[in-house]
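Following up on my earlier thread - several people asked me to post the actual chain instead of describing it. Fair enough. Here it is, all 139 residues.
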Amino acid sequence: MKYATKGAMGKLRLHFTMRTKVEIRLKEIFLKHYCPRAAIDKITEELLQLRQTNEYVDEINGIFFDKARFCPALLTTPELWMTRYHLILKTEIREFIHSSKCANSEEMIDWERGRETELKRREQEERRGLSISYAFEEN
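Reply from S.P.:
Thanks for posting it. Predicted structure:
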C-alpha cells in the first residue's frame, strides 16, 4: 500500500510540476506576443516607484500584485516580493513590521492590516479628543 500511495503522490507531483511549467511557458508566450517590451518596462518602473499615499493596505496590495505579475525577473523569490512590498508602505505602517520576521506574505499583510486599523483608531480618538476640548473651550 505504501508503494501505491508513493506512486500516486509521485504522479500527482509530476502533474503539478508539468502544469506549472506549462503555465509559465504560456505566460511567457503571451507576454512576448501581446505585451510590448516598452509596456513591460513602464510597468516595472511604476512598480519600482510605487509608494502608498492615501490608499488602504488592501488597495495598495492589489496595485502591487497587478504590476508585479508583469515583472517576474525583478521578483524572483518570495523574499524579494515581501521586501519590495514592504518598501512601498507608509512609514507609519512599515516601521512596526519587519518583513524578515514574517513567514510569508500573507502573514505580513495581516500585520499591516492590523497596524493600519490601529492607526485609524488612534486618529479617530484624537479627533474625538479635539472635539471634546473644543466643546469645553466654547462654554
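The CA atoms of residues 58 and 113 lie 8 Å apart. That should answer part of your original question.
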